Amino acid sequence: MTETDYKALSELAQDIAREAGQLALDYKAKGLTQVDTKSSEVDMVTEADKACEKLIVERLTAARPEDGLKGEEGADKPSTSGITWHIDPIDGTTNYLYGLPFAPSLGAAIGDEPVAGAIYAPFSDEMFDAYKGGGSRLNGETIRVNEIDRLDLALVSSGLYYDADVRTKQAQQLVNVVAHIRDLRRGGAASLDLCSVAAGRTDAYYEIGINSWDIAAGMLIAAEAGATIKTSFEANWNKGTQMIVAAPGIADALSELVGDPPELN
Ligand code: IPD
Fold first, then answer.
1. 78 lies in some domain
2. Using CA atoms, how far apart are residues 175 and 192, in angstroms rounded to an integer?
3. Do 156 and 84 have their domain in common?
4. 91 within ligand 1 shell (Cβ under 6 A)
5. Could you read off the pLDDT of 110-161 as tens digits, one per residue?
């Protein structure tokens, strides 16, 4: 595939992410946010999550019937084209319910390598996109990571898993980190955390227990904006994966500070 092909994938992802974001807003405006739970009582899924994934799957299938699909709400189709879409219809479901930033996230990958993606934040009307070799953009304008080489001056974000035992281990890891950075943010949507690193709104992000649909688009957007990604995802996009994404000048130091991922089970 050429850069032009990747760009076309990114444009498709942007159109569909915008449409899904609008649908999520419509559901919210109508109060159609009935909640079910998934892995635990605090891991929620709404009617809107399901409707947005359905819309995304329909649009992708119509445009690119041979592509594979992997969605947070269950979409699972093998690829015959070599491309698989990793889809989070509403990344930040808890945020969505509380009126905080959320985003549909669509990342196209060849094997484990993301090649195009889009993340759309409807409340702020912000479209982030990237394609392999083509840089990253926010509403069409090029974005870059910050230039920083002191971890003690870095603003770092992270996330927490839905399971209480895992969270406890993440918190123990955090205790070690917070003493050595400027400050910590917990945004509530991994995709947007990655976009924030890309746009220089934070300097780094790390999280353990992250799924491919949370990060496929965001890791490309961060990488194309100049971020260093310390974790390898080769055949390892699963709940045990620890991801460190940082401005290059602080990536080694943050990686050393965060250390090895704790055992999750
Ligand atoms: C979650 C969010 C959160 C992150 C979790 C994700 P969801 O995705 O991205 O910030 O900490 O690991 O599972 O469930 O809201 O789509």
1. yes
2. 23
3. no
4. yes
5. 998 999 999 999 999 999 999 999 999 999 999 999 999 999 999 999 999 8
* Domain hosting residue 26, numbered range: 3-142
* Number of domains present in the structure of the chain: 2
Rounded Cα distance between 40 and 205, Å, is 25
Q: How far is the CA of 190 from the centre of ligand 1 (A)?
A: 6
Cβ atoms of 69 and 87 within 8 Å: the answer is yes
What does the angle CA 9 – CA 58 – CA 25 come to, to the nearest 5 degrees?
90
- List, in sequence order, every residue forming a beta bridge with 69; answer none if it has no partner: 77, 85
d(CA 42, CA 28): 19
Q: How far is the CA of 91 from the centre of ligand 1 (A)?
A: 6
CA atoms within 13 A on the CB side of 44: 15
188 CA to middle of ligand 1, Å? 6
Query: Taking the complete model, does pTM exceed 0.85, yes or no?
Result: yes
